[in-house]
Known about the structure:
250 residues; alpha/beta; eight-stranded mixed beta sheet; 43% helix; globular
Amino acid sequence: MHDKPVALVTGANKGIGLQIAKELAARGFTVLVGSRDLERGETAVKSVGADARALRLDVTNHASVAAAEERIRKELGRLDVLVNNAGIAQAGKPGRTLAEIVKSARPSIASLDEVRAVFETNVFGVIAVTQAMLPLLREAPAGRIVNVSSEVGSLTRSSDPTNPYRSVFSVSYPASKTALNAITLAFAMELESTRIKVNAACPGFTATDLNNFEGTRTVEQGAREAVRLALLDANGPTGTFSNEDGRLPW
Length: 250
């Protein structure tokens, strides 16, 4: 077994995922940089640290997920932290502004094919990766699962007429994060008698290609809560949804 704790971050070749990978590496982890494109993953690894490895991982592809788990088990023999960061905001025409993405996702006109594609990555991909990695996480001294969610998925916040972001709620990206929150809670409940803790982190409106770099927060700010949850001690919570200011309502 590898003598250092191991963390897998999906979608880690850029944006918030890359920053999470850098911070976990700085805290003594061997970090697996999950990336659909191995070449991009290998490029990203150079900025993460000497003890980082690129891992080809397409969360929407069963064979890719299975192969990733097999490689981790054979090469390292352990997994201590899983950060389900991979996500997409849309599956339509690249380069659209955030306003265009929100408009196209209105319930009355949203493309079902696009909604399915978003859920395939943001929801079903998280289930698939988590299920595949659970045997390794169960063997860890203190397994941690962090799902990168979003405040726009909060039903409580989105149903509040005074919420300034209420208008962006739709059947696509926001609804996928609502589903992700439910999945976080379901895994946490099943695993609450184990040493594994499962929580959801909101990075805030961070400037990444997810929103065409229209976000107002840096990736360093966006990574903070996910990193904190990945490093929880035995007294830390499970089954929570939070940002760096505290708990968020489901």
